[in-house]
Amino acid sequence: xxxxxxxxxxxxxxxxxxxxxxxxxxxxxxxxxxxxxxxxxxxxxxxxxxxxxxxxxxxxxxxxxxxxxxxxxxxxxxxxxxxxxxxxxxxxxxxxxxxxxxxxxxxxxxxxxxxxxxxxxxxxxxxxxxxxxxxxxxxxxxxxxxxxxxxxxxxxxxxxxxxxxxxxxxxxxxxxxxxxxxxxxxxxxxxxxxxxxxxxxx
Length: 202
Fold this sequence. Notes:
Layout: E1 3-8, H1 14-22, E2 27-29, E3 32-34, E4 47-49, H2 52-60, E5 64-70, E6 73-78, H3 79-84, E7 89-93, E8 110-115, H4 122-129, H5 132-138, H6 142-161, H7 163-172, E9 176-179, H8 185-199
Parallel strand pairs: 1-7, 1-8, 2-7, 3-4, 8-9
Antiparallel strand pairs: 3-6, 5-6
Helix pairs in contact: 4-6
């Protein structure tokens, strides 16, 4: 199997990059399974919610190619779906912490690390205000929405404190770190680099 591990600062746009790459003919966004309840506006085709018992049953049967824990919930990507689409470049959006062990399971995958400068942290705030899962979840409760966004911003700032550690892992696996400056960075820098990596495999 081959593909890309997409990681980065909280709220930076990992899922958006997966969606954009999935529009290209040779890419496949591997669906993730989770025992977290589904969120409003979330695609049921790429995020499949199930009970904790169902998740454990698959995990114990070694049916996942990789699993991780985040926010008290489990996430996993099915081996069968990865194998069925092995002719394409698979993409997995994972947490930064997962970089420490994911390449034990997916050694041929290349990491893409999306991050922001601390001075540009407001970019993440603006993006979160536009997230459909956030706005539908909290509706008109602006106070709860603000609390959620603030907690994610604080998490992003904390992650930036350890950015050098994650950068080393990314570079050691032939990946690349991208500083997201605005909404154009994804299309002017990230996706073009990804395509050069697939060209080199031809």
